[in-house]
C-alpha cells in the first residue's frame, strides 16, 4: 500500500490537487512513518511539488502499525500537526488563543 492510498482511505478530505503534491502535509504528520526533519533522499534536486508527489507515492513498509497516539487521534478525527514545538511554545500559543 502506498502512503497516498492510506491517506485517501483514512482522510479523503486531505487528498486533492489543491494541495502541494496532492496531499495535505507529510506522511509523518499522520503517524505513517517516524518524525524526521528532511524529505527522502534525492528530493532536493526536484521541485517541491514533484518531491511531495513522489514522497506520497512511495510504498509503505509492510507490517508497520501506527503508535497508540495515532489510534487515539484517529478516533477523535484529529491528526498531529507539529510535534516539533516545545512545551514553552505550546503554552505561549494557548495563552494567546485564550485572550
Topology overview:
Blueprint lengths: L2 H8 L37 H9 L11 H8 L11 H12 L1
Short account of what is shown:
Helices cover 37% and strands 0% of the residues. It has helices at 3-10, 48-56, 68-75, 87-98. The protein starts with a helix and ends with a helix.
How many individual β-strands?
0
Shape: globular
Q: Would you identify the regions where 5 or more consecutive residues have pLDDT less than 50?
A: none
Largest sheet: none
- Percent helix range: 25-40%
Q: Give the H and E element order.
A: HHHH
Distance between the amino and carboxyl termini: 45 Å
Structural class: mainly alpha
Specify the number of helices: 4
Chain-averaged pLDDT: 79
Radius of gyration of CA atoms, rounded to a whole number: 15 Å
- How much of the residues is beta strand, in percent? under 5%
List keywords for this structure.
about 35% helix; single chain; mainly alpha; 4 helices; about 100 residues
Model description:
Helix content is 37%, strand content 0%. The protein is mainly α. The longest helix has 12 residues, at 87-98. The chain is globular, with a radius of gyration of 15 Å. The chain starts with a helix and ends with a helix. The model has no long low-confidence stretch (mean pLDDT 79).
